[in-house]
């Protein structure tokens, strides 16, 4: 039974970058809004991921809002790739500038949401008892927010400390003099390993699948390289949404790798490697599409690994060989491969020595037990759907989102879900989200959603719902686009392969921002043909055709 049940126009779940942006937008439209956030502060990913080395792999000048000049022009990034504390500070700065906290309930998790057909509204249950009702439900829970901690035998009996990269303690953790195991070598592990190697007495890196990683080439930024001081930097931030990834890169060669000479290929890849960062994957036009081209680039990176790592056997174990480069999210590192040249670091190849279980003092791999004081899980997330399907969302006729998505997520344009009226997902499955600059993706969705709510206010509609036909058609398109790339060729979290039992569906939209932007603009221009408003198809309203 609810202690209180307040009523709002909009309830937003999550106060990360998506939730904050959405709150500011709906407020500016004169709507009442309440945000529920499980953490004690704003920031989302950048609130939770406080692990040593946590850093953005998008340059700061692109990793900031553009919807209001104040919060982009007045902010200064100290480094090319800002570290977690600075991004968290930025989130707090934005919250202060717009006085966002007064509409956010912190330390409160939404544990149920039910659509009421009689009132066209959602009723939310929270673990704090502060329940709420709202016409619209906006889900801003993040794509990588439900941590994956594998169920390994004996873990409950392990006497040491355990951590997950995405639930890092707020107070600093001291690893000095300790024997530490890191499990996982994705983006989080690749960032953690060099830092932990500096602190710990002994570091074991437990690798199941090696990652391709590109050096970040991080550096300090000067006063003249900021959005507020440099017109070129500013112009590029505003140009970013028109690019494929939401980031402006320079010096890219639009030609296909297979169409250039070996000399030109080497020169361009060396240049991109020296530039550093994820832009390496854009060095040529077809790295993500053509297997042969991709192979050349993967060979180039494997050669760099062999250069960096002194022990040839270790270097070979660090070389990915069974998936195309980029099919798992490319990692961006500072000193990752070089760390394996340290005497206190050992790479444990779990393919040769699988984890058999935990003892009170360590981890048994293959035929030996590693004595460890601390275990750091860098084992990733139940990505894109985990936080949504665990929230107890029930749409029309009691349909549970977890059931509706049992065979994989299905959305219309990555925004709405058939059977779940008045509910919108920000940067959810079926949208570019994790494949592009997340801030650009978020701002785009928030603007589209704001326009939809305004359209409904103007037309007096109280309910919208995605049609099953529009959703099926979008899901087909998302799958077709993914099949035309190499992205489906790895057992990645993009396809849910990291979570036992999760359906293998490629979840984000791989067509790039321009195609997606055009598609969602077309939907608006055509009067929302994929939606039904108060029982009337949007296309009928738009064309003025007779209502039946
Ligand atoms: O997680 P991951 P992440 N036994 O899923 C291994 C973003 N991000 O937190 O590949 C042993 O990529 C797993 O092995 P395998 C970014 O989008 C960004 O690192 O499944 N190992 C893998 O090595 C990124 O892609 C930034 O065989 C197990 C690792 O754990 C996403 O978040 C920084 C295992 C998980 O890698 C997720 O990255 C950090 C098991 N049972 C994160 N289960 C930046 O901006 C899993 N693994 C830089």
UniProtKB/TrEMBL annotation:
Keywords: FAD, Flavoprotein, Monooxygenase, NADP, Oxidoreductase
A Pfam family this chain is assigned to: FMO-like
Required cofactor(s): FAD
PANTHER family (UniProt xref): L-ORNITHINE N(5)-MONOOXYGENASE-RELATED
Stated family: Belongs to the FAD-binding monooxygenase family.
Designated name of the protein: NAD(P)/FAD-dependent oxidoreductase
Organism whose genome encodes this protein: Pseudonocardia xishanensis
């Amino acid at each position: 039974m609810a202690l209180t049940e307040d009523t709002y126009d909009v309830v937003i779940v999550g106060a990360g970058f998506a939730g904050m942006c959405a709150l500011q937008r709906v407020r500016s439209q004169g709507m009442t809004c309440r945000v529920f956030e499980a953490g004690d502060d704003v920031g989302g990913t950048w609130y939770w991921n406080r692990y040593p080395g946590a850093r953005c792999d998008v340059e700061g000048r692109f990793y900031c809002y553009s919807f209001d000049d104040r919060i982009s022009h007045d902010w200064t990034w100290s480094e090319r790739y800002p570290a977690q504390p600075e991004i968290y500070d930025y989130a707090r700065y934005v919250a202060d500038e717009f006085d966002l906290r007064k509409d956010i309930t912190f330390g409160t998790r939404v544990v149920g949401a039910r659509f009421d057909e009689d009132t066209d509204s959602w009723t939310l249950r929270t673990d704090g008892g502060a329940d709420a009702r709202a016409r619209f439900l906006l889900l801003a829970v993040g794509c990588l927010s439900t941590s994956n901690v594998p169920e390994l035998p004996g873990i409950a009996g392990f006497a040491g400390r355990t951590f997950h990269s995405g639930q890092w303690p707020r107070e600093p953790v001291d690893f000095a003099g300790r024997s530490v195991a890191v499990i996982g070598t994705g983006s989080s592990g690749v960032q953690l390993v060099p830092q932990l190697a500096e602190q710990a007495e002994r570091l074991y890196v437990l690798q199941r699948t090696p990652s391709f990683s590109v050096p970040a080439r991080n550096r300090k930024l000067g006063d003249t390289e900021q959005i507020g001081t440099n017109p070129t930097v500013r112009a590029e931030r505003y140009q970013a949404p028109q690019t494929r990834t939401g980031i402006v890169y320079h010096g890219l060669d639009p030609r296909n790798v297979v169409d250039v000479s070996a000399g030109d290929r080497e020169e361009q890849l060396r240049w991109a490697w020296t530039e550093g960062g994820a832009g390496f994957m854009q060095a040529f036009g077809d790295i993500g599409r053509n297997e042969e081209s991709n192979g050349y680039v993967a060979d180039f990176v494997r050669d760099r690994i062999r250069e960096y790592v002194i022990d040839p056997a270790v270097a070979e174990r660090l070389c990915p060989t069974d998936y195309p480069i980029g099919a798992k999210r490319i990692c961006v590192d500072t000193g990752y491969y070089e760390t394996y040249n340290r005497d206190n670091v050992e790479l444990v190849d779990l393919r040769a020595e699988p984890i058999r279980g935990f003892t009170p003092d360590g981890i048994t791999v293959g035929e030996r037990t590693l004595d460890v004081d601390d275990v750091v899980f860098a084992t990733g997330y139940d990505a894109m759907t985990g936080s949504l399907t665990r929230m107890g969302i029930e749409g029309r006729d009691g349909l549970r989102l977890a059931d509706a998505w049992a065979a994989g997520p299905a959305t219309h344009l990555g925004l709405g879900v058939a059977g779940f009226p008045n509910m919108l997902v920000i940067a959810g499955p079926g949208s570019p989200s994790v494949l592009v600059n997340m801030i650009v993706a978020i701002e785009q969705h928030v603007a589209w959603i704001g326009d939809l709510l305004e359209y409904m206010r103007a037309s007096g509609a109280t309910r919208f719902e995605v049609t099953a036909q529009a959703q099926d058609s979008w899901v087909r398109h998302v799958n077709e686009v993914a099949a035309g790339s190499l992205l489906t060729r790895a057992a990645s979290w993009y396809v849910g392969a990291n979570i036992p039992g999760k359906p293998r569906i490629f979840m984000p939209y791989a067509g790039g921002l321009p195609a997606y932007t055009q598609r969602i603009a077309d939907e608006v221009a055509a009067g929302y043909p994929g939606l039904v408003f108060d029982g009337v198809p949007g296309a009928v309203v738009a064309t003025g055709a007779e209502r039946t």
